[in-house]
Sequence to fold (70 residues):
Amino acid sequence: LADEEWARRDPLARLQALALDRGWLDEEAAAGLEREANAEIDDAVEFARDSPFPEPELAAQLVYAQDGRR
Fold:
C-alpha cells in the first residue's frame, strides 16, 4: 500500500482523531500526550544505546526451554 494509505490506517492517528472529535481530548492535551510519549521513547532509546550488549549465550537461554517444557 502507498504511504498515504498506511497513514489513513494508523491506529494512533485514528484514535486521536476520534478523541478530538468526541471531545475526549483537546489539541493541547493531545500535543502534551505526544510530547510525553516521545520523551519516554527517547529515554528508552538512550537507555538501550548506553547499555552493554548481552552475552551471546543469553539468546539461547531465552529462546529454548531448558527442561523440555514449551
